[in-house]
Write a structure and sequence with these properties.
With 212 residues, the protein is of the alpha+beta class. The protein has 2 domains: 115 residues, Creatine Amidinohydrolase (Alpha-Beta Complex), CATH 3.90.230; 97 residues, Alpha-Beta Complex (Creatine Amidinohydrolase). Strands 1, 2, 3 and 4 form a 4-stranded antiparallel β-sheet that branches. A 3-stranded antiparallel β-sheet has the order 7-6-8. β6 and β7 form a beta hairpin. α1 packs across α2 and α3 runs antiparallel to α4. The longest helix has 21 residues.
Length: 212
């Protein structure tokens, strides 16, 4: 069931989302060669708790950490540990927080030092796809419009869209209805209504996507 949020609930969700964004901004300068993913995890947990939040992922379905850290060809949901980042790595850090009973959730991709031109292009296409999807997230549009905008832009740059993982609704629960595919046909799927809250999370690959 899709839950429509009140104006008060939307304000609380904005606060949670803002805290996640502030945490990413504070984390960014700490992502450098030599740091371990466990050290990044510890920083994020401390930051969120000091600002009144609870790390959503820690303990979620048994997950042991506060963030997900996916390096290079890891698609998502990598677990932080002793791995040290190296010059040229690309890392996606996924942060979730619970603040005043509502969730914020955002993954950012970072370059570790100087990265290859290919990696830089992938990051640029991924960000452009995110904004293309967000541009379609307006009242009266359909979920297929979001997915189509992302897919068509990615493929126009010779990239692929991961289909095994999709975005989702968010609110009092981390994962709410509806699922938000990052591929699709315009004019299809659930019609968007004011008060819906969505996580648009395109996962973009170099070359065509070949699913499992």
């Amino acid at each position: 069931m899709i839950l429509i949020k009140s104006a008060r609930e939307l304000d609380l969700m904005r606060q949670a989302g803002r805290l996640v964004a502030e945490c990413h901004a504070a984390l960014a300068p700490r992502i450098r060669p030599g740091v371990t993913t466990a050290e990044l995890d510890a920083f994020v947990e401390d930051f969120l708790r000091r600002h009144g939040g609870i790390p959503t992922y820690k303990g979620y379905r048994g997950y042991p950490a506060s963030i997900c850290t996916s390096v290079n060809d890891e698609v998502c949901h990598g677990i932080p540990g002793r791995r040290r980042l190296r010059e040229g790595d690309v890392i996606t850090v996924d942060i979730g927080v619970t603040l005043n009973g509502y969730h914020g959730d955002s993954a950012w991709t970072y370059a570790v030092g100087e990265v290859s031109e290919e990696a830089r292009r992938l990051m640029e296409v991924g960000e452009a796809c995110l904004w293309a999807g967000i541009a379609q997230a307006r009242e009266g549009s359909r979920l297929g419009d979001i997915g189509h905008a992302i897919q068509s832009l990615a493929e126009s740059h010779g990239c692929g869209v991961v289909r095994d993982f999709v975005g989702h609704g968010i609110g009092r629960r981390l994962h709410e209805d509806p699922d938000v595919p990052h591929f699709g046909t315009p004019g299809t799927g659930v019609r968007l209504r004011a008060g819906m809250t969505l996580c648009i999370e395109p996962l973009i690959t170099l070359g065509a996507w070949r699913g499992t």
